[in-house]
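User: Fold this; tokens only.

Assistant: Input:
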Amino acid sequence: MGGQPTVADFAAAAGTSRASFYRHFQSRDALFEALEVAPEPGARDRILSAAVEMVGADGLGRLSMDELADRAGVSRATLYRLVPGKAALLTELIASYSPLEPISRLLTARHEAPPAELMPEVARTAYRAVFSGGESRVGLMRALFFEVSGLAPETEEAASEAITKVVGLLVVYVTAQMAAGTLRVMHPLLALQAFIGPILFHILTRPLAERVLGLDVDGETAVTLLAEAWLRAMAVTEEGHD
């Protein structure tokens, strides 16, 4: 339409109702006035830290922006200024906590490395990002890969862009390695599914496997072994045949 956003627009972006909006702000102008206040120091980190816990417990779809503000100890105005909706929140979470960004950086920096070096490191990078500092971000991974299709279009788009970026880099790398004769030739997306599937499954089920099945293999060792199994399956024979 080209005009300024309405109260309904703000409420929709925040995933709340107009009634909830008016409980905190008397008008749209009151929100604009509140947004002029600089956010408290550390507010963004507290918001994202609280959001990771909430997404891990209940999923992204059930997350309440108002409850997030309370959990993070920030005002509604600060929350909406820093992350004005679930799409913006998911973008921030992906950048700060998901394995997608560190894997993208790794692929960009080491795209000339041979598969035997790079692919196990991709697996370890993913594991470290999800279990960094002894904390589990498995809930965020579940939301990113399994919940997104049921969310609002703008939220789904935020996740899809991040996933597509990493997959694109991996497709370019794997295709180049196939052309160079270092990996067996097959559809690159199928090759990546064979790589990502076992590693993602291990990451998502590891807490349960440790608790219920007594899994005692170090996490980085486990995903390295899975990556090495993929490398053996993708190896080219000495005769050059698949």
